[in-house]
Design brief:
- It is built from nine helices and six strands, in the order H-E-H-E-H-H-H-E-E-E-E-H-H-H-H.
- The chain has 259 residues and is of the alpha+beta class.
- It has two domains: 124 residues, no CATH class; 118 residues, no CATH class.
- Strands 3-4-5-6 form a four-stranded antiparallel beta sheet. Strands 1-2 form a two-stranded antiparallel sheet.
- Helix 1 packs antiparallel against helix 4 and helix 6 packs across helix 7.
- The protein is rod-shaped.
- 28% of the residues are buried.
Length: 259
């Protein structure tokens, strides 16, 4: 009976040590990927239209760009390590094995979070670049930028640019990050308000704007023309409520919106 007990204690202690080593490796992986440099070359290799925020490279804060997932994952591993840190910890063998597996998962999850942060930065960079390129093209047709803001003043969120034409017409282009099957992309929304033109003028403007949108954002012109049409429940002069052009409200930080 005594030898069995000693063997069980040995197995428990060996498993605890393996769990501690595994959790330590997981925590080390999280710390290694907490911040890293995303170089100009890395950004340009993904898409030729991307431009880095700085020539030296952009420092990616994984905690920020994963919206707290980095700290949540690391905190779980740290809590598990504290539970089994003492040799006499009141923890079952099954729990120790679960801790070891959590540490192994942590090493993988840390790299996944780093990749998630990288692509979130690149998607944000793309939103800024696409909007700039579209503005440059539309300035050739007499449009000017009224406002260009980030939702909640946060570059992880949507970017909205409002342009004003020569007749006072307004065009709002919103690029919103979205994720489908683990792939990050940007959704394009087109809203307009034009009360002064007739049907023929509208067709000409739609042709010009659709061509520019297709060139800058990579969507087929027929898709853009469908998006640019009036939506049910709106007047023929607009496809969106006036609130779309209230960029101050769109840019208001979340804490202010909650008040």
């Amino acid at each position: 009976m005594r030898s069995r007990l000693e063997l069980a204690e040995q197995e428990w202690e060996q498993t605890r040590q393996m769990a501690l080593e595994s959790l330590g490796a997981g925590l080390a992986a999280y710390d290694a990927y907490a911040k890293f440099k995303l170089s100009t070359i890395q950004i340009e290799n993904e898409n030729s239209t991307h431009r880095a925020a700085t020539e030296e490279g952009f420092e990616v804060d994984v905690e920020h760009w994963t919206e707290g997932k980095w700290s949540a994952g690391r905190r779980e591993l740290e809590q598990r390590r504290k539970q089994i840190a003492e040799p006499g910890a009141n923890v079952s063998l099954e729990n120790l094995r679960a801790c070891e597996q959590a540490g192994q998962r942590g090493m993988t999850e840390a790299t996944v979070l780093a990749a998630t942060a990288k692509y979130a930065v690149m998607a944000s960079t793309m939103r800024a670049d696409l909007q700039r390129d579209f503005l440059e093209k539309m300035e050739g047709f007499g449009y000017q930028c009224e406002n260009n803001v980030w939702q909640e003043e946060d570059q992880r969120r949507a970017n909205r640019m409002v342009l004003v034409g020569t007749s006072g017409e307004r065009l709002a282009i919103t690029l919103t990050p979205q994720e489908e099957s683990g792939v990050l992309s940007n959704r394009l929304d087109i809203d307009f308000n034009d009360e002064r033109c007739n049907e023929e003028e509208r067709r000409k403007k739609i042709a010009v704007i659709s061509s520019a949108l297709a060139q800058c954002y990579g969507l087929p012109e027929e898709v853009i023309e469908e998006e640019y049409r009036c939506k049910p429940g709106t007047s023929w002069t607009s496809n969106a409520p006036e609130a779309i052009y209230n960029t101050a409200e769109f840019a208001k930080p979340k804490s202010c919106n909650a008040e």
